[in-house]
Amino acid sequence: MPADVKEKQMAALTPYYANSPREELERVALIDGSLVAMQLMLVARAYGYDTNPIGGFEREKVAEAFDMDIERYVPVMIVSIGKATDSGYGSYRLSTDETVFWK
Ligand SMILES: Cc1cc2nc3c(=O)[nH]c(=O)nc-3n(C[C@H](O)[C@H](O)[C@H](O)COP(=O)(O)O)c2cc1C
């Protein structure tokens, strides 16, 4: 990013985030964190590892176990990474015709 673009972005975004309610910050963190998690899973797969996203967990307890400052960090999901011991069960994906609108 060129320096002048950085300056412009910082000037606009720093006050925006400073004045955004917690709810908005969490919304942004969930979107960004989810994209990062997906990318991490794809990279892990490219290196021959298997992954599993886990969204159902006790956020406060996990934050505590990982010594996370709950005021600063938002636990988004757990991504387990490793080598699968078996191939698991077959799965099914609905086609994009059934799940996506193009406008
Ligand atoms: C974001 C996300 C969070 C998930 N969280 C859970 C979870 O908390 N518990 C669970 O049993 N499965 C959870 N799943 C489902 C499994 O991680 C996994 O997708 C599924 O077992 C694989 O089967 P599938 O290929 O049929 O999707 C989650 C999936 C996604 C995409």
Automatic annotation (TrEMBL):
InterPro entries: Nitroreductase (IPR029479), Nitroreductase-like (IPR000415). Belongs to the nitroreductase family. Residues 16-83 form the Nitroreductase domain. It comes from the Bacteria. Pfam families: Nitroreductase. GO terms for molecular function: oxidoreductase activity. It comes from Listeria cornellensis FSL F6-0969. The keyword Transport does not apply. This is Putative NAD(P)H nitroreductase ydgI. Keywords: Oxidoreductase.
